[in-house]
Design brief:
Bound molecules: ligand 7TS
Number of strands: 17
Structural class: alpha/beta
Strand order of the largest sheet: 4-10-9-8-7-5-6
Oligomer: single chain
Number of helices: 14
Shape: globular
Length: about 425
């Protein structure tokens, strides 16, 4: 894949050849796919690995002694090693395959909550969290009679770190914060938050769904205790995700699901579990998904996560001022491109975001509109919903231009009834 990268940047024309899906006509226009925060497209290399697995190697893992079972098991465990390397975890035992970020966060809340949270403890999240990082904690708080607290945001949508210092105390049991917001596009200072949490012996959880696909992530440098992300937002298939946890915690936690694969011995009235990470992986896992996630990591690494990050930031630096220059359009989150990732939520004064998204779709431009599974944030921003364009490394400045042109056309249409 050396064609996809050069020394310090990325050659997007070559990369786009790996994503045939991008080359299609939608509503008589060439597709511009800007819904990458919801899910990303998959390169040919990932599709080939999926296809090859089902054509040649398909078997259940950890169960058989036959050749196919050995091949499937080896490939599955190699994928775990790729994930470990990719996020710089210390041990493979700390990498648990899940269905995605939502499952990872639910498992942490259930299992960690059971082991470490008691009545009156405080759980700290923020106003910018995705529902996957809100509801599992709400449910835990209800079950344990714990107290859920929210870190507020500054006017520009940064976490209010002064407030965070006051809210995270010795009464806190767990802090769980997004690494990157799926609406505001802001990168949260997760290292600083982790230090703050650890100063009070508090467990730190990071929701990395919008970070891992876009920038180098080092869980040991962050020093967080848990980190969750999804394969489908980083060129991998749906239905596979990762829960990273420090061994010292995972060892003390009970599995959330029980059944085959995760047991050591089953007696009539009691059972014992396999060692980490398998004790958390009950039942037949998403073998093909994990292997294809490994292929997605290979693909991203061949381009280089730093290159991907730099390239996406150059797209933001290009498009954000153009969006800000459109009269009547409000961009949410940080206004300086340096502080804003490629997730850009906005609203047009007087036009419902669903109408904006529908009008953009008529121009071939795919964006999302709604509450983006972040209703507490949407209420906090005091809006009903927003439109959201989200970029990935296969998007181009030409895509950004098409978005801007389509927005001007939308504005014209809603003002004068013509495009
Ligand atoms: N956390 C964040 C920050 C997210 O952006 C998402 C998905 C999730 C958790 C849940 O991930 P899942 O793979 O388990 O669904 N975010 C979005 C989005 O912004 N639009 O669609 C899905």
């Amino acid at each position: 894949m050396s064609h996809s990268a050069n020394e310090n940047s990325l050659v997007v024309e070559n990369i786009r050849k790996d994503f045939a899906i991008l080359d299609q006509i939608v509503n008589d226009e060439a597709l511009v796919y800007l819904d990458n925060a919801a899910t990303t497209q998959k390169p040919q290399a990932v599709l080939d690995v999926l296809n090859h697995y089902y054509h040649h190697d398909n078997a259940n893992v950890h169960r058989g002694v036959h050749t196919l079972a050995e091949r499937a098991t080896t490939a599955y465990e190699e994928a775990r090693e790729k994930v470990r390397r990719f996020i710089h975890a210390k041990k493979n035992a700390e990498i648990i395959f899940t269905r995605g970020t939502t499952t990872s966060l639910n498992w942490i809340a259930q299992s960690l909550g059971e082991a470490f949270v008691k009545e009156g403890d405080e759980i700290v999240i923020s106003y910018m969290e995705h529902h996957a990082n809100v509801i599992p904690w709400q449910q835990l708080a209800k079950r344990k009679k714990a107290i859920l607290k929210y870190i507020p945001l500054t006017a520009e949508g940064f976490l209010d770190m002064q407030a965070a210092k006051e809210i995270i105390t010795d009464k806190t049991a767990i802090v769980s914060i997004a690494h990157v917001s799926n609406v505001l596009g802001v990168v949260n200072p997760v290292e600083t938050l982790t230090q703050l949490a650890h100063n009070h012996q508090v467990i730190m959880v990071v929701d990395g769904a919008q970070a891992v696909p876009h920038m180098p992530v080092d869980v040991q440098a962050i020093d967080c205790d848990f980190y969750a992300f999804s394969g489908h937002k980083m060129c991998g298939p749906t239905g596979i995700g990762v829960l990273y946890g420090k061994k010292q915690y995972l060892e003390q936690m009970e599995p959330v699901e029980f059944g085959g694969e995760m047991i050591d011995f089953v007696h009539l009235y009691d059972s014992t579990w396999k060692e980490l990470p398998w004790k958390f992986e009950a039942g037949t896992p998403n073998i093909a998904g994990a292997i294809a996630l490994g292929a997605a990591i290979d693909y991203l690494e061949a381009i280089g996560m730093e290159n991907i990050h730099q390239y996406e930031q150059s797209l933001v630096a290009y498009v954000l001022p153009k969006l800000q220059a459109i009269e009547g359009l409000t961009v949410y989150g940080p206004q300086d491109p340096k502080d804003h990732t490629g997730v850009i939520a906005f609203n047009f004064e007087g036009i419902h975001p669903h109408d904006v998204a529908t009008a953009l779709d008529m121009e071939g431009v795919a964006v999302r509109a709604g509450h983006h599974c972040a209703q507490p944030l949407i209420q906090y921003l005091d809006v009903q919903a927003t439109a959201r364009a989200s970029f990935y490394f296969y998007n181009t400045k030409a895509d950004a231009d098409r978005l801007i042109e389509a927005l001007y056309a939308t504005k014209e249409f809603f003002q004068h009834g013509t495009i």
